[in-house]
Specification:
The structure holds 2 protein chains of 2 kinds.
Chain A: E1 12-18, E2 26-32, H1 36-47, E3 55-60, H2 72-76
Chain B: H1 15-26, H2 39-58, H3 60-64, H4 73-98, H5 104-112, H6 130-150, H7 156-184, H8 188-207, H9 219-224, H10 232-250, E1 260-262, E2 267-269, H11 275-285, H12 289-324
Antiparallel strand pairs in B: 1-2
Helix pairs in contact in B: 2-4, 4-7, 6-7, 6-8, 6-10
Classes of the chains: A alpha+beta, B mainly alpha.
Chain lengths: 99, 325
């Protein structure tokens, strides 16, 4: 803790990258930067050195709302007993052909 | 490895919670930053990931030494890209450690004042161009050996950082071996330079895995928590078994007269490094230890005005934007 108290650290940003083939932006990690412009420039250097993406989103880490890990059970409970949402729930006879 | 002699912290937590936590780990669950975790798990991880991150950053220095003196423009561009990767790896790891409640600036402070360590290997000098080959081949090779299993470590952010790093690390080892192949197919003087680099880096590379299992007092807890996946001796043996044939391919001699294939154990017998030297280097008495920290300190001090200026600019632009609204 040798960093003097008056020295503010650069804020934390969460970085999202969209790859080449039209997939959605995907979280790749975080980094520190003084502002959004620098966050995007730093993200280019830290997360796209091998052409991993064609678009970068930088979001202030403290702007992200997250579900609580302790409520993991109850929050996701409603999906627990609804296997019929998956197509494999419905057996289709072979004779019917592709579906 | 990049994290050596990481002291495990004891936990004074509620035994029932500890048992539930251990059960999650045994079941292969990933622990995420907001999950409950024992204080010892958190502290040990901060120390281990921090040491790993510092090693990536300090590890830039021995190679940075040769960027301006690389023999061709292509070699220079490749070395530059490798050193830039190391900076990236340091940043991924600092971010993983930060999710545990320590800031990057705090960790930097602890590196500079000696409370946190970096890998012993980077306290050795890089004297010739062949050292760039030996470092990539041996040092990055040893690092990969340790980092591949860490992709399955129990702490989510650490595992994810390791996955990114492993993807990039293989380039590092291959470019090193490529330098060695070039030197070994060159003039007798060039080949002698490659041999000299191997002579100097062999034992320090073996030390990267840490002391022998018998002396490694903190391994049991870390292995139970899955923040250490293999024992030091296991990984060292694997490294020697993989590297010995590569040295033979290059026509180089590993500087160990006792090195020979042992049919019974299906691996090589080899000499232990000088552990007194290892402990001495970890204490900060390596050939370049003082220089490495002095260089990091200078970079930190010289960069202060840049960090401040960018922050001031960001504040000013934000204030102007608010005023305009």
């Amino acid at each position: 803790m040798t960093a003097p108290a008056d020295k503010r650290e650069w804020p934390l940003w969460e970085i999202f990258i969209r790859g080449q083939h039209g997939a959605s932006h995907r979280h790749v990690g975080s980094l520190h930067a003084p502002d959004a412009e620098m966050a995007i420039l730093n993200a280019r250097d830290v997360y796209t050195r091998r052409k991993e993406g064609v678009s970068i989103w930088a979001v202030p880490a403290n702007a992200i709302a997250a579900s609580s890990p302790s409520k993991k059970g109850p929050l996701f409970d409603p999906a627990e007993d609804k296997a019929y949402r998956h197509p494999s729930f419905f057996p289709i006879p072979k004779d019917v052909g592709p579906m | 490895m990049y994290a050596q002699m990481v002291k495990s912290e004891a936990s004074n937590d509620d035994p029932a919670r500890l048992a539930t936590f251990q059960a999650r780990i045994d079941a292969g669950d990933k622990i995420e930053p907001k999950d409950w975790m024992p204080e010892g798990y958190r502290k040990t991880l901060i120390r281990q990931i921090g040491q790993h991150a510092h090693s990536e950053i300090v590890g830039q220095l021995p190679e940075g030494n040769w960027i301006t003196r690389a023999p061709t423009l292509e070699r220079k561009a490749i070395l530059l890209a490798k050193v830039q990767d190391e900076a990236g790896h340091g940043l991924y790891l600092y971010c993983a450690a930060e999710t545990l409640g320590v800031s990057r600036d705090e960790m930097t402070g602890m590196l500079l004042d000696g409370r946190m360590k970096y890998s012993s290997i980077f306290a050795y000098p890089t004297l010739t161009w062949a050292d760039m080959g030996a470092v990539g081949w041996l040092v990055d090779g040893a690092a990969i050996m340790n980092q591949v299993p860490l992709q399955r470590t129990s702490f989510g952010p650490y595992a994810r950082a390791m996955i990114r790093i492993c993807k990039e690390e293989s380039f590092h080892q291959r470019q090193g071996f490529d330098i060695m192949m070039k030197m070994c197919s060159g003039t007798p003087a060039q080949k002698a330079m490659a041999q000299d680099a191997l002579d100097r880096f062999w034992f320090p590379a073996l030390m990267m895995f840490g002391p022998s299992d018998a002396e490694s007092t903190h391994s049991a807890q870390s292995m139970a928590w899955k923040i250490k996946m293999n024992s030091n001796d296991e990984l060292r043996q694997k490294f020697v078994d993989q590297t010995a044939p590569q040295a033979a391919y290059l026509g180089l001699t590993i500087p160990d007269e006792t090195l020979r294939w042992n049919e019974d154990k299906g691996g090589y017998d080899f000499a232990e490094p000088d552990w007194d030297e290892f402990f001495d280097v970890l204490k900060g008495n390596g050939p370049c230890s003082t220089d490495r920290i002095a260089t990091r300190q200078k970079a930190w001090d010289d960069g202060q005005w840049v960090r401040d200026a960018l922050m001031a600019h960001a504040d000013k632009t934000r204030a102007a934007r608010v005023a305009a609204e």
